Amino acid sequence: MSDRPSLREELAAAARRVADEGLVVGTGGNLSVRDGDDVLVTASGVDLARCTADDVVAVGLDGAPRDPAAAAPTSELPLHLGVYADSGCAAVVHVHAPWSTAVACVLDELPVAHYQQLLLGGPIRVAPYSTFGTPELADGVRAALEGRSVVPGAELAAFAAELASTPDPGRSAAVSARNRLVGIVTAVKKDTVMAQVDMVC
């Protein structure tokens, strides 16, 4: 069983950082880190801005709790375990970044809007909407992540080689999403203004 207090502290610190970056509000996200055959993951219902090492629980790669008396893991555990099964990643960050969520409502794929997005694998695929905590959501995110490192949908799932860097891909994707959404809104406003001008003439 993973009982490395420092890794629990690092995961809790990463959760607080994600909240500080504005990539999540309240309990709308979850993080995990793989430690050999164990996965440390935020517990269900944790406010990431207030996450502590006590809010991190250990499960096996099969999802079985290492400490049956511990809090329940996030309902998105299947998403985390699926990403670990599909990749060699060491950490998973799943958040509902507001800009990424907004873009996911209007695009199927976020085109490259900033050079840093190239580090994420180019255009970012949007996973289809599915109810939280369901196998369908986990499957959709896994499919969208194939060959990529980040995917925004109604949520943003990112994985990285080191826990310390996990919020950075999420921030890059959120910035690209914000820039694209601002561009879309500007284009809509421009078209609206042009239509109004045409009607006046």
Plain-language structure description:
By secondary structure, this protein is of the alpha+beta class. 39% of the residues lie in helices and 17% in strands. A hairpin with a 2-residue loop joins strand 1 and strand 2.
SSE layout:
Blueprint: H1 5-20, E1 29-35, E2 38-42, E3 56-60, H2 77-86, E4 91-95, H3 98-104, E5 109-110, E6 124-125, H4 135-145, E7 150-152, E8 156-160, H5 167-200
Antiparallel strand pairs: 1-2, 1-4, 2-3, 4-8, 5-6, 7-8
Helix pairs in contact: 2-4, 3-5
Keywords:
201 residues; alpha+beta; six-stranded antiparallel sheet; two-stranded antiparallel ribbon; 39% helix; 17% strand; disordered C terminus
Number of separate helices:
5
Stretches with pLDDT under 50, minimum 5 residues: 150-167, 183-201
Query: Percent of residues in beta strands?
Result: 15-25%
Structural class: alpha+beta
What kind of oligomer do you see? single chain
Largest sheet: 6 strands, antiparallel
The radius of gyration computed from the alpha-carbon positions, rounded to a whole number of angstroms, is: 18 Å
Helix content: 25-40%
Which strand order spans the largest sheet, edge to edge or round the barrel? 3-2-1-4-8-7
Helix-strand sequence: HEEEHEHEEHEEH
Summary?
The chain is of the alpha+beta class.
